[in-house]
Amino acid sequence: MGNIEREARRKRVRGYVQKAVLATIAISGVLLVTMAAPNTLQLLKYVPGIRRYRFNQQAETALSRLAQKKWITFERHNGKRFARITEAGRHAFMAENRKNKLIPLIKRRWDKRWRVVIFDVPEKRRDVRDRLRSMMREFGFEHLQDSVWVYPYDCEDMVALLKAELKIGFSVLYMVVEQIENEKYLKERFDL
Fold it and tell me: Do residues 125 and 170 make contact, with C-beta atoms less than 8 angstroms apart?
């Protein structure tokens, strides 16, 4: 396994841990930080790449990242540290749930049309642009050019959700096209 593959796997695992910690806090409302690992571990026991002996460290890192994003806050009661979900965290959790519900609805029978998403998000909203790129990758889109992404299946609802979630409706264009020049590698990439 190369360094790039290893780093990609680490990022996926960090994402799983972070999502599980956020889900645990969102469901319970408040979480005793020392109890984060056992509670969250229940959600992750079947996820490959989670190292149980390092899980406490991974959960603590995930909590720190969630706090940096302002999705959780820490509070102290009777000398114990608790994590509480914020309104922004609840919103992010709900958005993740909506996104996960849409993924299985995507048809997996190719109709020989490509879905092309083009976006032009200004530099002053770079964080939104980076988040959009990350989400496109998560959904399985193929990066065609700078701000051009391709997917073989109907995903209009998913793109509409992204536009609404990121508040970039006019900056994103969704197209359905019959043919893309030199599409052979895309067909191979999507196993079509």
Answer: no
